[in-house]
TrEMBL record:
InterPro entries: DUF1668_ORYSA
Ranges of Acidic residues composition bias in the record: 117-134
UniProt name for this protein: DUF1618 domain-containing protein
Pfam families for this protein: DUF1668
Superkingdom of origin organism: Eukaryota
Chain segments carrying region Disordered: 114-134
């Protein structure tokens, strides 16, 4: 892979400004993955169904390998370290040149080495940074390289939620864990001093990734547990007092309320401004509901099968339900979901069941 030229990292002085888009990754061809680029819905169209957007890029890769990083701006592919093939990696991007990867039994930093022009312009002495020492794993085929960081004091299989919160002096990786054999606990990794800290015996109320929203001054995440299924949580950023942070749960669910939609998986993406988010939910659409009845309870919507022989055959298909929305606190201090915009997209028949059953791989870049 050729070296980047001066100015190429940011598109160069003559490049057009980069306009952020939503990208979805699918395993809809035998030799690798397809990346689709979405325009966010401008109005609501709950009943409108369309095919996925035009193909943006195809990447040749083994399915479920998880050992590469893709730069959509330069269309470069970066391989992960061969010594540790990722099992269930969790990614924490920082700026445009650093990526922290939490994997089974390790934490690694992937970053771009400074170009000579960058060093001369900013005056930093990068030669003193230990991530550029002889122990670094530099791949001669590309500009990125990996560096081992202190191992986490927990197993990645026990991770329930995670987030990254910016501080005035660097960044902190926040990770909550819980299992049948372990008590609830939350840890932080301080990137400036490269050390793990124990924050307390509690976990974030959301599941999976939390997104820091500066106007709400909260970590925002999605709940997938019984009793709070499909709600949004806004959680205060934890401090060093070992006390669990305060949180609020949205008054409305964000998952589909259509009785024909059976929830399969979902990912929440922060759009980076004005409390705006995008939910990408995969649903299994039951086109003929003659075989089912809907029972509503205070927690969840439950689909009940009628006795065999009393219904007609159904047609099923997977759909991606794309919903943008904003969050705000009302006069009573309650968290509200506002300005919903919805579109449905057909999932290509070649997408594997393993792909639709895991949370959609989606990015706002």
């Amino acid at each position: 892979m050729p070296k980047r030229r001066c100015g190429e990292r940011d598109g160069g002085s003559t490049a057009k400004p980069w306009k952020r888009r939503l990208y979805l990754v699918c395993d809809d061809w035998d030799s690798g993955y397809s990346i689709r680029k979405f325009s966010l819905p401008a109005d609501s169209g709950e009943g409108a169904v369309q095919g996925l957007p035009t193909l943006f890029w195809r990447v040749v890769a083994r399915h479920h390998g998880g050992d590469m990083i893709i730069d959509v701006r330069t269309r470069c592919v970066v391989s992960g370290p061969e010594s540790n093939s990722p099992a269930r990696p969790i990614y924490f991007p920082v700026g445009e040149d650093r990526l922290y990867v939490l994997d089974s039994g390790c934490l690694e930093l992937c970053r771009l080495p400074p170009e000579q022009s960058d060093v001369e312009s900013d005056g930093d002495d990068y030669s003193s940074l230990d991530e550029y020492d002889s122990g670094s794993d530099i791949d001669s085929k590309d500009d990125w390289f990996w560096h081992q960081l202190p191992m986490p004091p927990f197993a990645i299989i026990d991770v329930t939620s995670y987030a990254m919160h910016p501080h005035s002096h660097g960044h902190s990786i926040l990770v909550s864990i819980k299992s049948e054999d372990l008590a609830a606990a939350t840890f932080s990794f301080e990137t400036e001093v490269r050390a793990w800290n124990f924050l307390g015996e509690w976990t974030f109320p959301f599941k999976g990734r939390g997104h820091y929203e500066s106007e709400l001054r909260a970590l925002v995440g999605l709940s997938k547990v019984k009793g709070a299924f499909g709600f949004i949580y806004a959680c205060d950023v934890p401090n060093t007092s070992n006390r669990p942070p305060a949180w609020k749960r949205s008054k409305e669910k964000v998952f589909s309320k259509n009785p024909a939609d059976k929830h399969v998986s979902a990912s929440l993406v922060y759009l980076g401004y004005q409390r705006k988010f995008c939910l990408v939910e995969c649903v299994l659409v039951e086109e003929d509901k003659a075989c089912q009845e809907v029972k509503e309870d205070k927690d969840d919507q439950v689909l009940l099968e009628k006795p065999e022989g009393t219904c007609v055959p159904q047609r099923r298909r997977y759909m991606y339900r794309l919903m943008t929305f904003s969050l705000k606190y009302d006069k009573m201090g309650d968290l509200r979901v506002r300005h919903r915009r919805v579109r449905y997209y057909k999932v290509p028949s070649k997408v594997s069941k393993a792909c639709v059953r895991q949370d959609p791989v989606v990015f706002w870049l």
